[in-house]
Amino acid sequence: MLYVSAVTILLAVIVWLMPKNMQRRDIYILWISVSFVEIIVDVTLGSPVFGLYYFAGEDKVSPEALGLKLIMAPLFGVIYFNYMPKRFLRFLPYWLIWAAFSTFFEWTTVYFGYLTYKNWNLWYSALFYFAAMPLMRWHYFYIKHEE
């Protein structure tokens, strides 16, 4: 839990200091959207029904893990959306890099004991990230407020 807490603090500092290419209301909407998707996916797949993985050494989602999920995933999302290229051809390498980075970061959470796989493996996550990134891009351009 210490590793993920440290990463969350670092992400908060990065997001606070980075130049923003988005409007505050877009950040707000994306924060809620990313939190919602993160919680629904993890509570569903980590539930006793599926039991594919769990967090923080517990078979259920603890309040501490839930709190971190409500902060950490949206912070990654703000960075992802803030620097995401508008043109699709430029988005392709960005997409692949973020999918690879997300998979690597998930591996580090497994390594440091925050995430424990039961009936899941890292390749499933890589496929999920590969599919989710373009969907997130579509969602961003759908909700984005023009200046």
Automatic annotation (TrEMBL):
It comes from the Bacteria. The keyword Transmembrane helix applies. Keywords: Membrane, Transmembrane, Transmembrane helix. This is Uncharacterized protein. The chain crosses the membrane at residues 6-22, 29-54, 66-83, 95-117, 123-143.
